[in-house]
Amino acid sequence: MATAADATPPSYHWAKAVKEFDESKMGVKGLSDSGITSIPEFFVHPPHALSDLKLISKTAGSLPVIDLAGLESADHRRVIIDQVKEAARTWGFFQVVNHGVPSPSSMKRFVPAFHDQPRDVKAKYYKREEGRGVMYASNNDLYRAEAASWHDSLQAWMGPEPLPPEELPEVCRREVAAWDGHARGVAEKVMELLSEGLGLERGRFKELTFSESRTFVGHCYPYCPEPDRTMGITPHTDPGIVTVLLQNGIKGLQVKHGGEWVEVSPVDGGLIINVGDFLQIVSNGEYKSVQHRVVANSEKEPRISIVMFFNLSKWRGSGHYGPLPELLSPERPAVYRDFTAQEFLDNFYSKGLDSKSFVEKIEIQN
Ligand code: OGA
Ligand code: NI
Known about the structure:
Blueprint: H1 14-24, H2 27-33, H3 47-50, E1 65-67, H4 74-90, E2 93-97, H5 104-107, H6 110-115, H7 119-123, E3 134-138, E4 152-159, H8 173-197, H9 204-207, E5 214-221, E6 231-236, E7 242-247, E8 253-257, E9 260-263, E10 271-275, H10 277-282, E11 292-295, E12 303-310, E13 320-321, E14 339-340, H11 341-350, H12 358-361
Helix pairs in contact: 4-8
N-oxalylglycine is lined by residues 217, 219, 233, 238, 245, 247, 253, 292, 294, 305, 307.
């Protein structure tokens, strides 16, 4: 594999620099706060990855904004179902307003409250063990990716087994638990709409335990002195069912639509929802898991995003996953083959975030 390291002088010890950065536990925030004016070489992405950084579509329109008010009135619900279905099929991304989460803007403070703490306070949580508990780290895929990206993240695995609250950092303990409840509430509403959009029972996704396995992430994208040479997060699709995301007022998130990158402008009080790979597979390709990325932050204030991923869960007992059988017919045969949870996880952890999509891998070639 050609890595960005190939372009750097042989005297530069790429792997050593990565390891030193990791062991310092300072995160990107620490680098940024130290006042550096150029970024370490292992953050520099290769030319092919940066070539379309500035290519932002002016014509592809903007993410659909869906108003969830009136969800319980039967006639209006039909209208909302159609909007959600259309957005999930064409964009794979949408924003929702009137979602019932009280004042999401006031919630944005707890993630910076964690990242703004001194290095030694945060260092207690700095580790690289994904899957349970709480983990603070810079770049989950630091040792797998072609180059590092300009963000740090606080993560917590909230379910299906409840996370003991005392494992969460005190500075945001109550708020993370509250966000978990709110994000789950919104996700369940949206999952009902998505389920009905496929012609299934309203409660089908919940019955399939799609809202149980949850990962909280509080990303921090600090000021980057060379935003044209690195990324905030490289292009990827989310692996799970749906993602619920709240961002602060600093732009950076972009979504691929019609082959072009489209900026996601923060909508006041809005929450962003996107379809993950697993939902694309379960829906037999009806809903789309779409590539997105975050450009490195050129503003002095950090960009913050608060994310809840709803992940693969145990829905068939047998340990096999694939398109929902009730969506298949001779006219609409399976587009994807079945797979095991282990296959899904092996693919996810084999490479960087930007690795080949799992969805492509299990597509049935006709
Ligand atoms: C992610 C992601 C976008 C953002 O964490 O998967 O796409 O705005 N985040 O932080
Ligand atoms: Ni994502």
